[in-house]
Design goal:
With 217 residues, the protein is of the alpha/beta class. It is built from 7 helices and 7 strands, in the order ααββαβαβαβααββ. A 7-stranded mixed sheet has the order 3-2-1-4-5-7-6, sandwiched between helices. The longest helix has 21 residues. The radius of gyration is 16 Å and the shape is globular.
Protein backbone atom coordinates (compact mmCIF):
# COMPACT_ATOMS: atom_id res chain seq x y z
CA UNK A 1 0.00 0.00 0.00
CA UNK A 2 2.27 2.71 -1.26
CA UNK A 3 1.55 6.06 -2.82
CA UNK A 4 4.60 5.81 -5.11
CA UNK A 5 4.25 3.24 -7.89
CA UNK A 6 7.46 4.16 -9.73
CA UNK A 7 9.06 0.94 -10.97
CA UNK A 8 6.87 -0.95 -8.51
CA UNK A 9 7.91 -4.52 -9.21
CA UNK A 10 11.61 -3.74 -9.57
CA UNK A 11 11.59 -2.10 -6.14
CA UNK A 12 10.07 -5.18 -4.50
CA UNK A 13 12.47 -7.60 -6.18
CA UNK A 14 15.37 -5.38 -5.09
CA UNK A 15 14.53 -6.03 -1.42
CA UNK A 16 16.07 -9.50 -1.78
CA UNK A 17 19.32 -8.16 -3.23
CA UNK A 18 22.42 -6.78 -1.49
CA UNK A 19 22.78 -4.08 -0.18
CA UNK A 20 19.00 -3.68 0.19
CA UNK A 21 18.98 -6.84 2.32
CA UNK A 22 20.73 -4.86 5.07
CA UNK A 23 17.45 -3.04 5.55
CA UNK A 24 14.89 -5.67 4.61
CA UNK A 25 16.33 -8.93 5.95
CA UNK A 26 15.90 -8.01 9.64
CA UNK A 27 12.30 -7.07 8.89
CA UNK A 28 11.61 -10.40 7.22
CA UNK A 29 13.15 -12.30 10.13
CA UNK A 30 11.01 -10.45 12.66
CA UNK A 31 7.90 -10.89 10.53
CA UNK A 32 8.58 -14.64 10.27
CA UNK A 33 8.79 -14.76 14.08
CA UNK A 34 5.49 -12.86 14.29
CA UNK A 35 3.74 -15.28 11.94
CA UNK A 36 4.99 -18.26 13.95
CA UNK A 37 3.48 -16.68 17.05
CA UNK A 38 0.18 -16.11 15.24
CA UNK A 39 0.14 -19.72 14.06
CA UNK A 40 0.76 -20.95 17.60
CA UNK A 41 -2.30 -19.02 18.83
CA UNK A 42 -4.51 -19.43 15.72
CA UNK A 43 -3.31 -22.51 13.79
CA UNK A 44 -5.84 -21.90 11.00
CA UNK A 45 -6.15 -18.14 11.41
CA UNK A 46 -6.66 -15.69 8.58
CA UNK A 47 -4.08 -12.92 8.29
CA UNK A 48 -4.68 -9.60 6.56
CA UNK A 49 -1.67 -8.29 4.64
CA UNK A 50 -1.93 -4.53 4.15
CA UNK A 51 0.32 -3.28 1.38
CA UNK A 52 0.96 -6.78 0.08
CA UNK A 53 3.62 -6.03 -2.51
CA UNK A 54 4.58 -9.36 -4.07
CA UNK A 55 3.89 -11.31 -0.83
CA UNK A 56 7.37 -12.85 -0.92
CA UNK A 57 7.25 -13.61 2.80
CA UNK A 58 4.46 -16.18 2.38
CA UNK A 59 7.07 -18.68 1.21
CA UNK A 60 8.40 -18.92 4.77
CA UNK A 61 5.04 -18.63 6.54
CA UNK A 62 3.79 -21.46 8.78
CA UNK A 63 1.38 -23.91 7.19
CA UNK A 64 -2.23 -23.56 8.26
CA UNK A 65 -2.43 -19.78 8.11
CA UNK A 66 -4.39 -18.16 5.28
CA UNK A 67 -3.93 -14.68 3.86
CA UNK A 68 -6.14 -11.93 2.47
CA UNK A 69 -4.20 -9.19 0.73
CA UNK A 70 -4.98 -5.50 0.33
CA UNK A 71 -3.13 -2.83 -1.62
CA UNK A 72 -3.88 0.46 -3.34
CA UNK A 73 -2.06 -0.85 -6.44
CA UNK A 74 -4.13 -3.28 -8.50
CA UNK A 75 -0.95 -4.72 -10.03
CA UNK A 76 0.19 -5.94 -6.63
CA UNK A 77 -3.14 -7.60 -5.82
CA UNK A 78 -3.28 -9.21 -9.27
CA UNK A 79 0.29 -10.51 -8.97
CA UNK A 80 -0.46 -12.13 -5.62
CA UNK A 81 -3.70 -13.72 -6.82
CA UNK A 82 -1.85 -15.04 -9.90
CA UNK A 83 0.25 -17.17 -7.57
CA UNK A 84 -2.79 -19.48 -7.32
CA UNK A 85 -1.73 -20.35 -3.79
CA UNK A 86 -4.53 -22.07 -1.88
CA UNK A 87 -3.51 -20.15 1.27
CA UNK A 88 -4.57 -16.85 -0.33
CA UNK A 89 -8.24 -16.32 0.45
CA UNK A 90 -8.68 -13.19 -1.66
CA UNK A 91 -7.43 -9.76 -2.55
CA UNK A 92 -8.88 -6.27 -2.35
CA UNK A 93 -7.81 -3.05 -4.03
CA UNK A 94 -8.41 -0.36 -1.41
CA UNK A 95 -8.49 3.45 -1.69
CA UNK A 96 -5.54 5.39 -0.26
CA UNK A 97 -5.95 6.80 3.24
CA UNK A 98 -9.22 4.92 3.91
CA UNK A 99 -9.11 2.68 7.01
CA UNK A 100 -9.07 -0.95 5.92
CA UNK A 101 -12.03 -1.97 8.06
CA UNK A 102 -14.16 0.43 6.01
CA UNK A 103 -12.83 -0.98 2.74
CA UNK A 104 -13.23 -4.64 3.70
CA UNK A 105 -16.41 -4.40 5.75
CA UNK A 106 -16.84 -4.29 9.51
CA UNK A 107 -17.80 -7.98 9.72
CA UNK A 108 -14.53 -9.21 8.24
CA UNK A 109 -12.11 -9.53 11.13
CA UNK A 110 -8.72 -11.21 11.21
CA UNK A 111 -6.58 -13.17 13.63
CA UNK A 112 -3.64 -10.95 12.71
CA UNK A 113 -2.65 -8.08 10.46
CA UNK A 114 0.74 -7.03 9.21
CA UNK A 115 1.81 -4.02 7.17
CA UNK A 116 5.44 -3.92 6.09
CA UNK A 117 6.71 -0.44 5.13
CA UNK A 118 3.24 1.10 4.76
CA UNK A 119 2.38 3.48 7.58
CA UNK A 120 5.06 6.00 6.53
CA UNK A 121 3.04 6.60 3.33
CA UNK A 122 -0.21 7.34 5.17
CA UNK A 123 -1.03 10.95 6.01
CA UNK A 124 -4.15 10.20 8.09
CA UNK A 125 -2.28 7.56 10.06
CA UNK A 126 -4.13 7.86 13.42
CA UNK A 127 -7.46 6.91 11.79
CA UNK A 128 -5.67 4.31 9.67
CA UNK A 129 -4.17 2.61 12.74
CA UNK A 130 -7.55 2.63 14.46
CA UNK A 131 -9.01 0.92 11.40
CA UNK A 132 -6.44 -1.85 11.71
CA UNK A 133 -7.43 -2.38 15.33
CA UNK A 134 -11.12 -2.62 14.42
CA UNK A 135 -10.30 -5.20 11.73
CA UNK A 136 -8.77 -7.57 14.31
CA UNK A 137 -10.54 -10.16 16.42
CA UNK A 138 -10.33 -9.56 20.19
CA UNK A 139 -6.67 -9.93 21.23
CA UNK A 140 -5.69 -10.19 17.56
CA UNK A 141 -2.07 -9.34 16.77
CA UNK A 142 -0.61 -6.50 14.71
CA UNK A 143 2.87 -6.20 13.19
CA UNK A 144 4.17 -3.05 11.53
CA UNK A 145 7.50 -1.97 10.16
CA UNK A 146 8.54 1.51 9.13
CA UNK A 147 11.77 3.46 8.55
CA UNK A 148 13.48 4.69 11.70
CA UNK A 149 13.59 8.48 11.63
CA UNK A 150 14.36 8.75 15.33
CA UNK A 151 18.08 8.27 14.72
CA UNK A 152 20.34 10.05 12.20
CA UNK A 153 21.54 7.07 10.16
CA UNK A 154 18.63 6.56 7.78
CA UNK A 155 18.03 10.26 7.01
CA UNK A 156 21.71 10.63 6.19
CA UNK A 157 21.66 7.66 3.80
CA UNK A 158 18.36 8.72 2.23
CA UNK A 159 19.54 12.23 1.47
CA UNK A 160 22.77 11.06 -0.15
CA UNK A 161 23.24 7.55 -1.53
CA UNK A 162 19.57 6.55 -1.87
CA UNK A 163 18.61 9.89 -3.41
CA UNK A 164 21.37 9.51 -6.01
CA UNK A 165 20.17 6.01 -6.90
CA UNK A 166 16.56 7.22 -7.13
CA UNK A 167 17.45 10.12 -9.43
CA UNK A 168 19.32 7.77 -11.74
CA UNK A 169 16.06 5.78 -11.93
CA UNK A 170 14.08 8.90 -12.78
CA UNK A 171 12.47 9.89 -9.48
CA UNK A 172 13.24 11.46 -6.10
CA UNK A 173 12.88 10.12 -2.57
CA UNK A 174 12.43 13.56 -0.98
CA UNK A 175 8.68 13.22 -0.46
CA UNK A 176 8.35 9.43 -0.55
CA UNK A 177 7.67 9.15 3.21
CA UNK A 178 5.32 11.94 4.29
CA UNK A 179 4.91 10.43 7.77
CA UNK A 180 8.09 9.79 9.74
CA UNK A 181 8.24 7.91 13.00
CA UNK A 182 10.68 7.50 15.83
CA UNK A 183 10.48 4.58 18.24
CA UNK A 184 8.65 6.76 20.75
CA UNK A 185 6.17 8.38 18.35
CA UNK A 186 5.19 5.04 16.81
CA UNK A 187 4.58 3.51 20.23
CA UNK A 188 2.48 6.48 21.30
CA UNK A 189 0.52 6.36 18.07
CA UNK A 190 -0.31 2.68 18.46
CA UNK A 191 -1.45 3.16 22.05
CA UNK A 192 -3.57 6.17 21.07
CA UNK A 193 -5.23 4.01 18.41
CA UNK A 194 -6.33 1.58 21.13
CA UNK A 195 -3.66 -1.10 20.90
CA UNK A 196 -2.29 -2.90 23.93
CA UNK A 197 0.98 -4.72 24.68
CA UNK A 198 2.78 -2.38 22.29
CA UNK A 199 6.44 -3.23 21.69
CA UNK A 200 8.49 -1.14 19.26
CA UNK A 201 12.11 -2.02 18.49
CA UNK A 202 14.84 -0.80 16.16
CA UNK A 203 16.40 -3.39 13.88
CA UNK A 204 20.08 -4.26 14.43
CA UNK A 205 21.10 -1.86 11.64
CA UNK A 206 19.06 0.94 13.37
CA UNK A 207 17.54 1.78 9.98
CA UNK A 208 14.01 0.47 10.60
CA UNK A 209 11.45 -0.06 13.34
CA UNK A 210 9.33 -3.13 13.97
CA UNK A 211 6.32 -3.09 16.23
CA UNK A 212 4.13 -5.76 17.77
CA UNK A 213 0.79 -4.95 19.39
CA UNK A 214 -2.55 -6.51 20.30
CA UNK A 215 -6.16 -5.44 19.97
CA UNK A 216 -8.06 -5.32 23.28
CA UNK A 217 -9.85 -8.43 24.45
Amino acid sequence: MTTDTTDYFANHVRARQFPWTLYHQPLEKDLAKFLRQVAAEHPTGEVLVVGCGLLQEIDAAPSGLTFHVADIDDRAVAAVLDRNDVRITGGTVVPPEVPVDQSLGARHRFAAIYAKEVVEHVLAWPAWLAGLRRALVPSGRLWLSTPNYGEPWLPAIESTVLELIARRSGFSRKHIHPTRFSKGSLGRGLRAAGFEQVDVSATPTRLALTSWARAPR
